[in-house]
Prior knowledge:
By secondary structure, the protein is of the alpha/beta class. It has helices at about 10-20, 55-65, 65-70, 110-120, 170, 190-195, 200-205, 240-250, 255-265, 270-280, 305-310, 320-340, 345-375, 380-395, 410-435; strands spanning about 1-5, 30-35, 50, 80-85, 90-95, 110, 125-130, 135-140, 140-145, 150-155, 160, 180-190, 210-215, 220-225, 230-235, 280-290, 300-305. The strands form 4 sheets. It has a 7-stranded mixed sheet with strand order 5-4-13-14-15-12-16. Strand 14 (about 220-225) and strand 15 (about 230-235) form a beta hairpin. It is globular, with a radius of gyration of 23 Å.
Amino acid sequence: MLTIAITGAGPVGLTLARLLLQSSISSQVNITIYEKDASRTSRHSPGGTLDLHPPTGLAAIKKMGLWDEFCKYARFEGEEMRICDLNGTVYIHQTEAPPIEGFEARPEIDRVRLMEVLLESVPNEIIRWDRAVKEVVHEGDRWKLKFEDGSVEGPFDLIVGADGAWSKVRKALTDVEPSYAGICGISGSIDKESAGDKWEHISGMVGKGNNFSYSYGQSAMAQRMGDGTLRCSFYARREREWIEDLKANHDGDDVALKRVLLEKYKDWIADFKQWIVAAKDLWCAPLFELPVGHRFEHKMGLSLCGDAFHLMSPFAGEGVNAGMKDSLDLAATIEKAVTEQTELDSAVKAYEESVFERSVKFMTETLVNKTTMYAQDAPYPFFGVIVGAIAKETGYDLKKGWRSYLPVTRTVYGVCWMVGTFGALRRRITDMLRGKQEAIAV
């Protein structure tokens, strides 16, 4: 019997367990998931909404046989998206999946709903709640898990770290730790009650999906949740000390955090300031990431999936998708090795090499998005990235061949600059006619 320990009962760890349990080797593996949370309902934050991608997250959902259950909560209309600037100028308003060959639907699902689907798909008895891993310890030629309460379990044939950004399993493989991504902010939620008579307008700005607005190194973003409420965040390029000071002194203090945000967003139109006033349950959110191209030396009996393997900021929507793809590949790797009676360690090492190669692509994409979204002249540079990505996905890579000589990026930048300038002028005229911007205070 092959013994496998999975640290972390998040989407990635649960996906791996589900895939192995429904595989042809299910009777030959003994799987245990160790989770630090006290229970399935004790998480501090339910998280936001996720868009699952066809070749990764959705592929895993289908392989697990959970497509019908997933569709009960998936929101295909959630692909609606607006990209704006501080003046409220709408540059892009996508109402559904782009009718472009190469692009498929990426439905939204609340993270908490995805977790429910996955938790219901695995036996309760394989999850050990309230088991916070302290470290992975080597004993002989195998590994054990040591927990915060001092107890030890194992040894195991394979320990898979699906335990997120600060993975304890990764510590046994490398000394590299996540670093501050240079972006931080304040997140919260908006509902009809907290927004009052401004709800219809605030809700209309987001529609059925998302509103992503960027200017001068700052953003105001809101996502529609499954229950109709909005998940909002206000990120910016700032020193880590700024957000750490806020966390230490004001985390959870809505009034204090709103005052800070209103000062930082004083040049933004009143519409976005109304988001700030209406937001509740605010918390400080510094972002972290691992270096692009980060590698670790393979060690027998250990491996990683998801953020533990390739932590990145959320600006390409690849985190959970990439993690579920890891689980998809690792489960297939383990199944094949056991079925063909080949060496498991060699198979796991080959899996890691494939993830190293794959992760460079989406970590680089995330880094480029982060850089352009939070550039001083944002959102203009980001639109060049969008056009380039669409061209590449549809077989017209603008960086190769004769197309590389076309000034596409500069043209896109110029057009967007004119749109933005017109939007700024329109705002000034509107403000003059109104006398001044609406005064907003907490």
